[in-house]
Amino acid sequence: MASFVTVRGQAISLESQTESLLSKYAQFAQTTSSDATGQERTLDNKLEKVLIQRQDIVDSLRKICDETQGISTSKTLQVQRHQEVLQEHRQHFRNLRSSIQQERNRLNLLFSVKKDIAQQSEESPDAYIQDESRRIEESHNVVDSLLSQAWQTRDQFASQRAVLQSAGDKMMNTLQRVPVINQVIAKINTRRKKNALILAGLITLCILFLFFTW
């Protein structure tokens, strides 16, 4: 196993290399092109590999500290500091990459708008009028379709209402034609009234009984 000093020397060397690469990569954020150049892609890939390599080295340093008895506190703190610097460089790299991509998207949007304006200016007035007329006609067709669907829905509701009304009329006619049903309904109503009177009388008697016996 390599010594702590040797592995830490590699970590320090890669940290310096990362700072140099980040400095070069930051230039693309200041002068962004609509498409990534070959140099930008190469630098991006190199930074990715260096950061991964540095994480492996920090893990090796941490393993040495764990397996070495009586390791000094200063070495443990050094490993922790290397990890913190690595995180800072990673975040800086992500921020630069995001800034470059945002600027590239903005440039591409501007180019697209300029291209559309140029194409419209090259078109003849007659072609523009025909295009607008076609769009208006399509809008009218959509409105006509919606109105037609609305009328169909209204007719369906009216038809359903007529069916329900017809069913109700048939039921009433059936009740009127069958006297037995009317008689049964009348008897049920009469019995309900009698039960209500009996119940009211019982309640009154109970109240009077309690009043006089209390």
From TrEMBL:
Subcellular location: Golgi apparatus membrane
Membrane topology: Single-pass type IV membrane protein
GO terms for MF: SNAP receptor activity
One Pfam family cited in the UniProt record for this chain: V-SNARE_C
Residue stretches spanning the membrane: 196-213
Gene Ontology annotations for the cellular component aspect, listed alphabetically: cis-Golgi network; Golgi medial cisterna; Golgi membrane; SNARE complex
GO BP of this protein: endoplasmic reticulum to Golgi vesicle-mediated transport; inter-Golgi cisterna vesicle-mediated transport; intracellular protein transport; vesicle fusion
Keyword set, alphabetical order: ER-Golgi transport, Golgi apparatus, Membrane, Protein transport, Transmembrane, Transmembrane helix, Transport
Entry keyword Transcription: no
Record has Transmembrane helix as a keyword: yes
Function: Involved in transport from the ER to the Golgi apparatus as well as in intra-Golgi transport. It belongs to a super-family of proteins called t-SNAREs or soluble NSF (N-ethylmaleimide-sensitive factor) attachment protein receptor.
Record text on subunit structure and interactions: Component of several multiprotein Golgi SNARE complexes.
Family, similarity comment: Belongs to the GOSR1 family.
Protein name, UniProt field: Golgi SNAP receptor complex member 1
Species of provenance: Lachancea lanzarotensis
